[in-house]
């Protein structure tokens, strides 16, 4: 089950479409959907989590806590809407496109993809692009 929670004034346009797409992403990776909670927040909220749980004193767009057991993926994915807006401007893409990238990023981590090294990061970007393309097919 995919849940959306809001700690800021942002609200997704179509939770049903996004949830359906993310479910399709999970299936495409041959995984089972457990409980996945998205929490949309601002920079300050996510910065506190980054400090408290990861000991990182930086701003970030997404932090995921993975509770996956076996083939069933579950977890909490925190997204800073402010960072997504800024990153969209920096990367010269639409807010919606950048939002899809961070939405799927956490799911891909739960599926076993990493992004720490250059090779891992390249594979993660390729997978993000592949899964974003699924959104357009699903609609």
TrEMBL record:
How the cofactor is bound: the record states: Binds 1 zinc ion.
- Name where it mostly resides: cytoplasm
Q: Which UniProt keywords apply?
A: Cytoplasm, Endonuclease, Hydrolase, Metal-binding, Nuclease, Ribosome biogenesis, rRNA processing, Zinc
Annotated Gene3D superfamilies: Metalloproteases ('zincins'), catalytic domain (3.40.390.30)
As recorded in UniProt, its EC number(s) are 3.1.-.-
Give the top-level enzyme category.
hydrolase
Pfam assignment, any one? YbeY
What the entry lists under SUPFAM superfamilies is as follows:
Metalloproteases ('zincins'), catalytic domain
Q: Where in the cell is it found?
A: Cytoplasm
This protein's cofactor list reads:
Zn(2+)
Question: Where Zn(2+) is bound, by residue?
Answer: 105, 109, 115
Q: Name one GO biological process term.
A: rRNA processing
Q: Which GO terms describe its cellular component?
A: cytoplasm
**The organism's place on the tree of life at top rank:** Bacteria
Gene Ontology molecular function terms on file: metalloendopeptidase activity; RNA endonuclease activity; zinc ion binding
Q: What does this protein do?
A: Single strand-specific metallo-endoribonuclease involved in late-stage 70S ribosome quality control and in maturation of the 3' terminus of the 16S rRNA.
Q: Which family does it belong to?
A: Belongs to the endoribonuclease YbeY family.
**Would you tell me the protein name for this molecule?**
Endoribonuclease YbeY
Name the species this protein comes from.
Flavobacterium micromati
